[in-house]
């Protein structure tokens, strides 16, 4: 069965449908080949990330990430809760560290560390933070 456009509006609808169909067919080629999973999350260096975390983050989050350092009020998030951390993407954690809590709608007291830490340093911290629920 062949559809014949009877009006200009119908013709535009056919073109829109064709464009959507084309995008749907191309979409799989535009997606990453390997989605982010627990196995391939961060390419950061855990050991370097630990050192950076202890220097910049442990004052508020505590050495174990549980947020019990009590050096800062209000209390900060517990990074050692596996269920919570499994729900957060590396991109989200990266953004929180780089741009601060306010950038993701969280506590503005979490500072942006982009002036002190480069992208590789932040990836290292993310890799370390991923190990906290297992400690």
List the helices and strands and how they pair.
Blueprint: H1 8-30, H2 46-56, H3 58-61, H4 82-87, H5 90-99, H6 119-129
Helix pairs in contact: 2-6, 5-6
Characterise the protein shown here.
The chain has 135 residues and is an all-alpha fold. It has two domains: 1-31, no CATH class; 46-134, Cytochrome c-like domain (Cytochrome Bc1 Complex, Chain D, domain 2, Orthogonal Bundle). 48% of the residues lie in helices and 0% in strands. It contains six helices and no strands. Helix 2 crosses helix 6 and helix 5 crosses helix 6 (119-129). The chain is globular, with a radius of gyration of 22 Å.
- Spatial shape: globular
Q: Could you name the CATH homologous superfamily of the largest domain?
A: Cytochrome c-like domain
Name the beta content range.
under 5%
- CATH topology assignment of the largest domain: Cytochrome Bc1 Complex, Chain D, domain 2
Task: Report a brief summary of the structure.
This protein has helices at residues 8-30, 46-56, 58-61, 82-87, 90-99, 119-129.
Descriptive terms for the model:
135 residues; Cytochrome Bc1 Complex, Chain D, domain 2; 2 domains
